[in-house]
Amino acid sequence: MTKVAFERIPACIVETQSLKVDSVTGATLASNGIKNAVADAAKKAGFDVAALRAKEVKVTPKALQTWDTDVLVIGAGGTGLSAALSAAQTGVKVILIEKGSMIGGNTMMAGAVYNAVDPEAQSTMKLTKAQKSSMDAYLALDPADPSLMFDRYPEWKPVLLNSLRQTSRVSSPRSRTRRLCQHLPRSSLLEWGFCFIVDGCLFTYSV
Q: What are phi and psi of 77, to 5 degrees?
């Protein structure tokens, strides 16, 4: 995604003579970094950076297109891909659209393996030492610990309290893992990109 930003942003700045060009979806930090670097170079060269940042860029929309489908899925992240596949498996015609230059969304940034709330599959699996260690560390968290910064993010304190309360009633480690996933609130999933729900199943990942 950053490659697209490096290819597109400098060319757009030169073409429009403006720093008010659109960032590349999925590469916002890289896009802003490029624009800030150009602004710094322009300032050192004696250009009016304020004027470059203020100059509007006119974007001409492309011609309208009409597509026929049974299901339209907007966004090809982990949720969108799962939803599109699930719909296609039922035999309906599916169109999946993505505004970015690459598919995957936040899921591409996942830094760990996926946890799927799937009782049938999990019933035959055992936790690895790393998974067990992670679960135990989570269960050992103290809501009063200042390092959790609940004073800054108070909305997460009830999430921890609720998940600890729910998992304390379950003896099986696998069941505890499922409970940890199932009791995270929908709002937190969207805000933090921590999980997604497809067909009633909650999929989680670490970033």
A: -85, -165
